[in-house]
User: Fold these one by one.
Assistant:
Number 1:
Amino acid sequence: MWRELESEAEHWGFIQAAGLQPGIFLQSPAWAKLQERLGSATKTLGYFQDNKIIGLVLLIKSQLPFQYFYWFAPKGPHFIADCSDVIKQEALLNLVNYLKSDKTIFLRIEPNISPAKSCKTKPVNPSATSVVDFKPAWESIIANMHEKTRYNMRLAERKGLKFRWANLAEFDNFWNLLQETAKRDNFRTHEFDHYKTMLELFGSVPLDTSELACRLGLVEYNGKLLAANLVLVCNKQATYLHGASSREHHELMAPYLLHGEVMRQLKEAGCKSYDMWGVQPQDGSLKNWAGFTRFKVGWGGQYYEAPGTFDYPIKKILYLVYRLARNLR
């Protein structure tokens, strides 16, 4: 049965025992704190058998018109390693029943199995990714990179580019470069407060803990910002969440120095892996992701793919209205 967790410590205990699972930070107590700071209500539930927690889900409430809403579990729910698919499917259906209310239209989830009796929908978070394992020596990690990646990283080192970690006072520089990148490459960003609040809440959390930490990495050339990325570390698993780069001095290969130094320093700080957070799925969909996918897989990571994003309609007619309105956008 599902029930609300009694303490944040119980929540962190499950996350810390989960092992390597891409996107686990989105199910952490820290992510709940971020969402609440940004104005969204959250709910954290555990799935129990014989008084033992075997599953967990962090739900974020998304408001719709006329006081209706839906619950979203980004990269969740999660279950213990030896939990069978039969129990997982049963737990998901029980979760739908648990969340039924007069104003709940549907439940949206991103589990690591394909849920029965659900509707697949457009992905919210990337289903496929590439994760670099930090267990080998740094020299072995470099050797496993694509030849062009190694060459460009060393080229950037020779050209005098400088990497450093930034502080919160420099956030506006990252934001301006991110807007420039989004306009050039035609993608949408989150709001200003989404990124800045991450740094405010988690920017001073030590990297050698199991809690959520955030870092902003910069690469400069003669004082000019050329590349930046926002990295999250949860349970010692690092995730490259958001990146930006300038077309100025493009030939200096600043993004290669940026990722190389971020990876090297995170490994030295005790992190276990580096998740590139989103590559093109193996079915060849998302063709506009092909370019940055080549960049990301060049770092030599292991490919992971989850089933995707799914909806469980609770009020079926209103859910159909929601889908129609969304498709007309």
Note: The first helix runs from residue 8 to 16.
Number 2:
Amino acid sequence: MNLSTKKMLITILIAISLILISGCAEINTISVPASQQNTNMLPQTSSIAYNAGDIDANPHQYARAEISGKVVDTMNSGGYTYIQLDDGTGTVWAAIPQTTVDLGAEGTITGSIMKNFPSSTLDRTFDAIIFSDGIQAAAIDNPTNADILESPASYYQVVVSGTVNQTMNTSDYTYLELDDGTGIIWAAITQTDIVIGENVTVSGGTQSEFESKTLNKTFEVLVMGTLVTDSDETVSETMSDEDFAAYHNF
């Protein structure tokens, strides 16, 4: 093979190499059209949405929400209460364990956001919905017994006061019927000697349709907590989670 032939072969090989490199580069730079991208695979952030309008505009940007607003729609299905909140910037749906929520009630929903959530019982898909433990009612300085009885699901931690009309004891707890002049509500505290006619204050959490097996009685609303003095110092220990769970076995 003479020199000119070798030079020609080298030139051809170089040309072929350049063509191959150019082709690979072109393949590697091919982009997927935006219309074909799966938006569900986009990176999710852990930021919190504080406005319903923000969730509506870009639900994939938020993982959690804390929205305060007015209840404009509600429905029960599949063990959940679905609530539509309007906060002035837009509306958003939330799902909480089934309870009674009044239209027009104001409160705050805090929880995780689910995108494109299908509800088989409602036969609809929510673009975005907040799953929460409940709705926290707008603050009332001193809710009365009547306030709590009217909407028990709106109050989780309350302070109730009233005159003791009657008491009932189980092995570990004392149940008190309290009358504050607006309504009568029952409370349960660690067993304590209480005098009928005494005015007492109890701080604790609310339970609706609470059934006491030991007393064979169902309380429409029950405040489970601790007895407090006028100086707001508790005189009985706060119930443990085990004690709370044990209520249903009394």
Note: Residues 21-45, 231-250 have pLDDT under 50 and may be disordered.
Number 3:
Amino acid sequence: MKKILLFCEALRNRAGIERMTVELANLLSEDYKVSIVTIDLFKAEECPYAVSPKVKIMSLNSSFNKTFSSLKSLNIRNIRLFRKICKELYPEVIITVATPLIRISAPAIIGLGIRNIGWEHFNIFAGSKAGTLFKSVAPWFVDKTVVLTEADAVDYRKKKAPDIIVIPNFTSIGSNNPSRIENKVLLAVGRHSEQKGFDLLLKAWAKSKPQGWLLTIVGDGKLKEDNIDLAEKLGISDSVIFKPSTPNIVEEFQNASCFVLSSRYEGLVLVLIEAKTMGLPSICFDCPNSPREVIRHGIDGWLVPSENIDALAKEIELRLKDIDTLRLAGEKARIDALKRYSPEAIKSQWENIL
């Protein structure tokens, strides 16, 4: 049985990268011998996602220096620790989760004959200029680089990066009953960070104020209190509900009738795929790089110019007036998502490169 090793920084955060790392490991463990190696110490009680008993988890019990400005940024200790584990497990293939970790995985396996696949979840321009530069050259140090969208692939190829493969994320949420689209709830899900643009969403909500509707924002993060304060200043606290991150996100999808994405930038938005799979139409900023690859404008959702608060407000006001249109778009969303983003569909794409 072929051995696969997924290498990631940590598994303690409720975020898309961590979730997909666990989901992919679980999926591949049906046919492969799969291990996950984390840099940070892994504690089962801190992991928000269920890991299959078939998946072995090991840790470097270290930390990752993300800077490019000191000797510590060479991560020499991490390279030595990871090489030791690779010699112990000797996988045929490593999947390095997030391009920055190639700084560790690539030198660690020199001379070992192990294939290395980079798996990048954000577009090439997300983050710092130094990060963009590194992501541009990192594909030269692995066998293949998997990105999540066709737009991401175009950006990498413009930088002359070799062996770029597009494999989108998947979700197993489709086994649940979809939303019946009967409650006047507009749902947003994500970390309270600048990237997610909840400040833009709240300003748009204040301009639209659909009669009888509630905006529910599910998530935690350092800007949550700022967003709660902003809702109060805008005079919309009575129509906005802030909820913490939850392992029962299915219930939030089932209780909503429309999903909204206000991000300034994204990789492939897993929560948007989940919303579609749960039968929700979506209103999204057309931000780089993925909403337009997930949402079919005018069919199962609606795209508005990125960071345009007035356009988002108008679209929210227009679409939430017509529950029948929402139901029809939601039905089409679920059919499309089950076809494109099911575990079975995505597993075969990974097997083609493993």
Note: The chain is about 35% helix and 15% strand.
